[in-house]
Design a protein that fits this description.
Blueprint: E1 7-16, E2 22-28, E3 36-43, E4 46-54, E5 57-66, E6 72-80, E7 86-97, E8 104-110, E9 116-122, E10 128-135
Length: about 140
């Protein structure tokens, strides 16, 4: 789904395309009561968030930040705390794109409060070329 309308669409999996769009993989009719699935929620043609479910229960949701070309530049996952509130829990992914081709050149993951950064690089055709884990000042 590329955010062409408002509403919800259900999928078995989710990815961020090489051109920076959240995309559902293998569309399904409704929530799965066994296993994992994703609900892409769009508003006015833009994907607002993705709800992640396991065995019929929402366990996470993702919010996206977009650049001026409509590409995802930030992908933040939220999880519930013990009080039923949602907070940044697992990770934040940052995306960089090639100026001419528009294809992703890097994905950078940083967990809140962590000094470890995971960086995945891609070549001009979008093929993964390397992955590094480094320690940085918090």
């Amino acid at each position: 789904m590329n955010g062409t309308s408002s509403g919800e669409q259900w999928y078995k999996d989710l990815d961020i395309s090489l051109k920076g769009q959240p995309v559902g993989i293998e569309q399904i009719d409704k929530i799965l009561l066994k296993g994992s699935c994703y609900c892409i929620v769009s508003q006015d043609g833009v994907i607002d968030r993705v709800d992640m479910y396991k065995d019929g229960q929402r366990i996470h949701y993702k919010k996206f930040g977009y650049d001026n070309l409509g590409r995802v530049i930030e992908n933040t996952m939220y999880s519930p705390d013990d009080n039923g509130n949602w907070h940044v829990a697992d990770d934040i992914w940052y995306y960089e794109y090639h100026q001419k081709t528009g294809l992703r050149t890097k994905k950078i993951m940083r967990m809140p409060g962590s000094s470890t950064v995971r960086e995945i690089s891609y070549d001009g055709q979008g093929n993964r070329t390397s992955e590094t884990v480094t320690t940085v000042d918090s």
